[in-house]
DNA sequence: ATTTTATAGTTGTATATACAAATGTGAATT
DNA sequence: AATTCACATTTGTATATACAACTATAAAAT
């Protein structure tokens, strides 16, 4: 459905405005859908994001700054996100012995199992949304988004 | 910048996953930039959204449901958003005389003035992001996003 | 007329987010 | 060695969001 119909706009919209609304609305649709997938596993989207970053470390610990810079929303409070994951025993944290200001965060076996259970659902989620586009269109959409935000 | 560089991904990513990350990240960039514009006017993005809907009513009152269905994020608590706008005297609310369950919300002169002050900044914001695309690419990006989320 | 069902909005509560200030540690300067 | 500066993370606090339960009103059914 076109964005004007969704938002029941009565006046015609500039294409530049439409992109903003389309990006914001598409993000909402994706996020709501993804939250449904996460709900039975009792983790939030941001917590999932942290777990993915930690798995990507392949056994190396990540400190708070490393996690922060790899996250989508840089404004998140990483300390508290890690606190929540710690309570669920999905990560461990300890002070770095070389530099006691730093914290070493690692994903646990339990954390890896949660991700493994989610993996097929996440792939299905990604493909669900792109199934209406052919591979050229998918590549083109990525290029246009990257070009769009390149200031 | 490409999304893999931004998120410092070490492994190559599927294009379907990239779209998700590109949409989420682009939304973050747009929203952060827009919040900077709103900050001096002391309203949030959601509050701005409600004011725009009310101005679009052209003098007709909007009830809570009408506001809700025209908002980007349908999960927002419209009552409390309107409460905040009421405190700032940007809207009025009264019980609908025909159906006392309904609430009639109207934008005030002060609300219209806030929007009027923001209008040029909002247009500049929209055009700032699309300046790297030509008009065909802008139209194409809208089409692809609409096709993408069409399930 | 009374009860049931549907509609419209509000409130409670728990959790999340935003942003600034504070804390603790290490490195550099005097 | 003491002071200053930079770095890494945490904490406080105010605001926002999510979701369910609740209240009030209207319409429909008995």
From TrEMBL, chains A, B:
Domain HTH marR-type span(s) in chain numbering: 1-150
InterPro entries assigned: HTH_MarR-typ, MarR/SlyA-like, WH-like_DNA-bd_sf, WH_DNA-bd_sf
One Gene Ontology term from the biological process aspect of the record: response to stress
Domain of life according to the entry: Bacteria
SMART domains, per database record: HTH_MARR
One GO MF term: DNA-binding transcription factor activity
PANTHER family in the record: HTH-TYPE TRANSCRIPTIONAL REPRESSOR YETL (PTHR33164:SF43), TRANSCRIPTIONAL REGULATOR, MARR FAMILY (PTHR33164)
Protein name as catalogued: MarR family transcriptional regulator
Organism this protein belongs to: Flavobacterium psychrolimnae
High-level lineage: Bacteria, Pseudomonadati, Bacteroidota, Flavobacteriia, Flavobacteriales
């Amino acid at each position: 459905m076109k964005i004007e119909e969704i938002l029941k706009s009565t006046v015609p919209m500039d294409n530049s405005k439409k992109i903003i609304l389309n990006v914001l609305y598409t993000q909402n649709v994706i996020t709501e859908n993804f939250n449904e997938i996460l709900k039975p596993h009792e983790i939030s989207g941001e917590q999932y994001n942290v777990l993915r970053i930690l798995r990507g470390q392949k056994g190396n610990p990540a400190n708070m700054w490393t996690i922060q810079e790899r996250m989508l929303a840089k404004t998140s409070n990483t300390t508290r996100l890690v606190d929540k994951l710690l309570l669920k025993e999905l990560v461990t944290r300890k002070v770095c012995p070389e530099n006691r200001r730093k914290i070493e965060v690692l994903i646990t076996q339990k954390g890896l199992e949660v991700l493994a259970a989610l993996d097929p659902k996440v792939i299905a989620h990604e493909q669900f949304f792109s199934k209406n586009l052919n591979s050229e269109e998918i590549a083109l959409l990525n290029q246009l988004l990257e070009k769009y935000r390149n200031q």
